[in-house]
Amino acid sequence: MGSTNSTLSKIPNAGDLMQETGFSPAHIVRLYDRYKALDKDKKGHLCPQDFGAIKELAMNPISDRIIGAFFSSGQEVLDFPSFVRILAHFRPVDKNRPKDPNSPEHINSRSNKLKFIFQLYDQDKDGKISRQELLQVLRTMLEKQVTEEQLESIADRTIQEADLDRDDAISFDEFRKNSLWCPSRSIKCRATD
Amino acid sequence: MAPYSQLSFLLTVLLIFGALCVTSKVQIQSSSERQSASSNTGSTGESTSNSSASITTVPIVTWKWHHVETPYLVALWILVCWLCKLMAQLNSKLKSFFPESALLIISGFILGGIVWGADKAQTFKLVPRNFFYFLLPQIILDTGYFMPNKLFFSNLGAILVHAVIGTCWNAAAVGISLWGCYLGGAMGNLQIGLLQFLLFGSLLAAVDPVAVIAVFEEVHVNEVLFIWVFGESLLNDGVTVVLYNVFDAFVSLGGEKINAGEIIKGIVSFFVVAFGGSLIGVVFAILISLLTKYTGKVQIIEAGFIFVLGYLSYLTAEMLSLSAILSVTFCGVCCQKYVNANMDEKSVTAVRYAMKVFANGSETMIFVFLGVTAIDTDIWVWNTGFILLTLLFVLVYRFMGVFFLTWILNRYRLVPIELIDQIVMSFGGLRGAVAYGLAASLDETRIKEKNLMITTTLIVVYFTVILQGLTMKPLVKWLKVKRVSPTELKLIEKVNNRAFEHILAAMEDISGRIGDNWWTRGWKRFEDTYITWFLMKPEARKNRDYLFSIFHKLNLEDAINYVTEAEKRGSLAFLNQTDGTIVNFEKKLRFSGVMPDIMSELDFGNNNVQPTSVIQDTVPSVSLNIHEHEMKRMNEDFNAHHLLQQHLYRSRKNHRHKYSRSNFSINQSEDEVQEIFQRTMRSRLESFKSAKMGVTPAKKITKHPKKDPNHKMSNGKTTDKSKKHPYGDEDFEFSEADSAYSGDGGATGGSSQRRGTYTMGGVENPAFMPEMDTPPPPWVTEAEADTSVAPSQGAQRYLPWSPRNLHRLAPLRISDRSTDSFLMADAPATEESSEESPQQPSQRDGTHM
Predict the structure, then answer these.
(1) Residues 47-86 of A with CB under 8 A from B
(2) What is the mean pLDDT of residues B644-668?
(3) Interface of B with A in 496-535 (CB under 8 A)
(4) B241-290, pLDDT tens digit by residue?
(5) Which end of chain B has fewer surrounding CB within 10 Å, N or C?
(6) Residues near B337 by Cβ (< 8 Å), separated by ≥ 6?
(7) Alpha-carbon gap, residue B435 to B240, rounded angstroms
(8) At what angle do helices B665-693 and B707-724 cross, to 10 degrees?
(9) Is-contact B102 B469, C-beta < 8 A?
(10) What is the distance between the alpha carbons of residues B109 and A43, in angstroms, rounded to a whole number?
C-alpha cells in the first residue's frame, strides 16, 4: 500500500494540527498512516462503517457510543483533522508543555476528557445523565447474568450517590465532582519498533 | 477457613507419608542394591531372578519391588511434587507474598532434607538428561503453543535484540569479569581458565522462562514489557544452549588450538544452530498442521499428535545438534493457529488442558527438584569470592545490558520504554533450571571446578528465584504510582473508570495496533491466500470467519426463539409450509452439531409436537416469575457496589496477557470477549434489520431520536434473557424474530445506500424491494398476508440466511448499523420516546411489518 512512506509534508495542515493537539510529527505521521489504512475505499474521509470494520472494536462493550462520539458533529464523514482532534483528547497530559493562561484549555485536559465521557452517557445531549441513560450504559457494560432488577438498583444507587441537587439526574458539574480518576492514565499511541 | 486448614493438615500428613515412603523405598532400594551387588559375584546378578530361582513353594503373593521400582519411584515423586504445589496453593497467606516457584524450591529443601536424613546421601538429583529430555520439552512447547502470536511477532525485533545481543553480552561480560577478578586473586587458586569462565558465563546467561513467567504473572506488567521479557527468556534459553555448546567445543579443543578460523567457525555454528533449530520447528509445525487436516477421523487421539510431533521436533533438532529449544518453540508458535482451526473444538480443548497439565506438572517437578538437589554434601564447594562475585556480576550486567539495549531501542520507538519498566525487566532476569541443567552436564574431566560451578549456579538460582521473586512485587508496588483504594470510590466513579478504560482500549484500536504496517498487511494477505489454503481444512477456513460464525449463532438463536414464540402463540401454521425450507437447511447449512437441533425442532413442529420440548429450559413462565420476584427481594439489600465490581466487563487491557502459566482464567476472559462481541453483532444486526424493515425512513428516525440505543440494548437484553428462559417477553421477541428473517431477506438485495428509497407511505414491505433475489421465508409473507408478492418456488430455495449470503452480508450490516445510529443521534430530540420498545409490541409490530 505504500502508506508507510507518508511524510509530514504530504499531510495537509500538519503544522496547525500539531500546534493545536500537541502531537509530535512522528505521531501525526503515524496517525495519518492509520487514517489512510482505515479509509479502505480511498474516499478521503472516514465513515462510521470504517470504524465498524475494526475488529477489536467489536469486542468493546461501548464501541457504538465511542464510534458515535467521532461523528457527533453531525456529519457522516470524518476528515483527518477531526480524527486527530478527537484522538488528542486522550493524549497524556505532559508536564513540560507550557501552560498559557490566556490560551483555551488544552484539548487533552482533564475536563475535556471528562466531557468526552459525559457525552457518551448523555445521548440526548440535554446536559444531564438521566436514570434512563445511565441504565442503558450499565446494561452495555455489565455482564449478562446481572438481572434487570439489579441493574435498576445499581442505577438508583449510582444516581443517589452522585446527585447533589436532588433532581434525579447527574449534571456535568456533579459528574466532574464525582470523578476522581487521575488524568495521567491516558492513552499512548502505541508504537512500532 | 476451617475446611481449608483441615485439608492442608491432611495434606501435610500425606506429604510426610509420601516422603517417608519414598525414603523407605530408597533404603530398601539402596540396601537391595548392596545386596545385589554382593550377590553379583555368586549368581546371575538380578535379584529378581534370584528370588525366582530359590522358591520352594507356590507363592500366593510375592513382594516384587524390583519389578516396579523405577516407575513406582517416578510416579511417587510426581505425586509428592504435585502435592507440594497443592500445599503451596492452599496456603493463601504464604502465597500472597511468596512466589510459588520459591515455595516449591523451599519444599524441595524440606523433601531433600528428609531423603538425606534417611539416606545420608542425596539419592535423587535433577539429572540433566532427564531434565532436558523429559521435563523441559513440554514446558517450552506449552509456552510456544500459547504464545500471543501477534504480540510476539510485532515485537520480534526487540525480543531478538535482547535475546541474542543481551545474552551474548551477559555471557561475555560475566565470564571476562570473573576471569579478571580471578587473575586479580579474588578467589584463590582455582584450576580454571578464560574459556572455562566464558563457558560458565554462558550457562549463567539463561533467563528462565518458567521462573520469569511465574513471577511476572503475579505482578501485572504492561503488554509490551510482558512480551519482551517473556519472548526474551524463551529465545534466550535457546541462545544460551547454543552459546554453551560453542564454548564447550572451544574448551574441549583447548586454548592453544583456537585461532581466528575456529572463532569464525564458532560464530557460524552459532547462527546455523539457532536458525536451523527454528527451521526444524517450522517444518514440524507445517507437518502438524497438515496432519491435523486429516486427523478428524481419529478424533479421540487427535490431540496426541500435537504432543508427539512437538516432542519429535525437539528430538530431531537435538539429533541434528541444532537448537532443540528454539525448534520446539517455533513449532508451537507456528502451528497453533492452524491446529486450532483444523481440529475439532473438543480436541483443541483437550490439547490446551493436556498442555497445561504436562507443562505445569513438569515445572513443579523442576522447582521441587531444584530444592532437593541442594541437600547434598557432594556438590557443595564453597569459594566466597567466586560465588559472591558471580552473583554481583550477574545482577549488574543484567541491569547494564537491559538499560543499554533499551536505550538503543528507545531511539527507534515512538513511545519509549519507561525507566520503571526497564528496572522491572532487569529485575526479572531470574535464572532457573536451564542454567542448572547446563551446569550439571558439564564434563568433569575437562572442567575441574565443576562442583564449584554447580554450587554457584544453584546459589544464583536460589538468589534470583527466591529473593528477587520475593522482592519483585513490593518493588513494582513501590515504583508504581499510588492508587486510590477501590473501596472509597463511588459507584459512578467505578463505572466511569471502567468506561474510561474501555474508551482507551478503543482509542488504541482506532489509532492502530502495534506493527500495523505494510509488511504485516502484506504477510497477512499472503497468509490468507496461500498458507491457510495449504494448511487448513476448507471447513476450518470457512469457520474461521469469525463474523460469520457469530452471525450463524445469532441466527440460530433467533430461529429457536422464533419457533418457541410461534408455538406459544399457537400459530404453527407456518411450519407446515417449511418443508421445502427444511431441505434447504440440510443442503445449505452443513453445521453438524447445531443444525440437528433446529431440524428436529422443525420436524417436531410438523408433527404437532411441542417444539419447546427441545429447548432445555422448560420451566413454566409463571414459576419463573415467582422465582424472579424472590430474587428481587433477595437482591434488595444486595450490595450494588459488589455487583458492579463483580460484573463490569473488564477492559481488554486488563486481560490482554493471553499467556497464563497455570490458570485458565484466559478462557473466562475469552468468554467475556465473546459475549461482548455477540452483543455488538446482535445490536448491529438488529439495527440493520430495523433499518431495512421499517424504521428506515428518515422521518421516523427523527421522531424517535433516542430509540436506537435503547432499542438495541433492550434487544440484547431480551435475547439474553430468552436464552435462559425462552418465555421472556414474548411479543417483542416475536416481532424481532420476524423481522430478523425478512430483514435478512431484504438485506441480500438492497444495499444500505438505497434504503431510503423504498418507503411507501410508511408501509415497508421487504417484498417490494428491488434486486431482492432472496425473498423472506414463507412465514413472513404469510404474516403480511396480501400486501406482499408471493415468492417464487425457485427463489424460496435460497434461504436468506444461507452461509453464502450471510457471508456477503457481513460488512453491509456493520455499515448500516453505524450510519443508522448516527442518523438517530443526529436527529433532534422532538419526542420523548425512549421508553418505547419492549413494552409496546403492537406499535413495534406496526413499524416492522
Answers:
(1) 47-49, 51-68, 71-72, 74, 76
(2) 54
(3) 496-500, 502-518, 521
(4) 888 888 888 888 876 777 788 888 888 988 898 899 999 999 999 999 88
(5) N
(6) B149
(7) 9
(8) 130
(9) yes
(10) 68
Strand partners of residue B207: B431
Answer whether A145 touches B (CB < 8 Å): yes
Q: Mark which residues 91-120 of A lie under 8 Å from B by CB.
A: 113, 116-117, 120
The one-letter amino acid code at B221 reads V
In a 3-state reduction of DSSP, which class is residue B566? helix
A133-139: long-range pairs with CB below 8 Å, 24+: A134/A158, A134/A159, A134/A170, A136/B709, A136/B710, A136/B713, A137/A62, A137/A65, A137/B495, A137/B499, A138/B495, A139/B713, A139/B716, A139/B717
Joined grid coordinates for residue A166: 436532588
Task: Measure CA of the first residue to CA of the last residue in chain A; give whole Å.
Answer: 19
What are B760's strand-pairing partners? B763
> How many CA atoms lie within 13 Å of B203's alpha carbon, on the beta-carbon side?
26
CB B545 within 8 A of CB B809: no
Q: Which residues of A touch B490 (CB under 8 A)?
A: 158, 161-162, 178
d(CA A67, CA A120): 10
Q: Does B645 touch chain A (CB under 8 A)?
A: no
pLDDT higher at B309 or B731 = B309
By C-alpha distance, the chain A residue nearest B827 is A74
Tell me whether residues B493 and A66 touch, CB distance under 8 A. Answer: no
Would you tell me which residues 680-699 of chain B have a C-beta closer than 8 angstroms to some C-beta of chain A? 680-681, 683-684
Integer Cα distance of B449 and B447 in angstroms: 6
| B45: alpha, beta or left? (left if phi > 0; alpha if psi -120 to 50) | left
Name which of A21-30, B140-149, B212-221, B399-408 the model is least confident about.
B212-221
Percent of chain B with pLDDT over 90: 8
Stated length of chain B: 849
Higher pLDDT, B60 or B491: B60
Q: Report whether B795 contacts B773 (CB < 8 A).
A: yes
Comparing CA positions, the residue from B736, B737, B767, B738 lying closest to residue B838 is: B736
Cβ-Cβ contacts under 8 Å, A128 against chain B: none
Residue B721 to chain A, least CA–CA distance (Å): 8
Q: Which residue of B has its CA nearest to A120?
A: B499
Q: Bridge partners of B763?
A: B760
Phi/psi region, residue B71 (left: phi>0; alpha: psi -120 to 50; beta: rest), is alpha
Judge contact between A113 and A183, C-beta under 8 A.
yes
Q: What would the grid cell of residue B442 be?
A: 558439564
The closest CB to that of A59, out of B224, B673, B720, belongs to B673
CA distance readout (Å), B560 to A35, B548, B608, B737: 41, 18, 16, 9
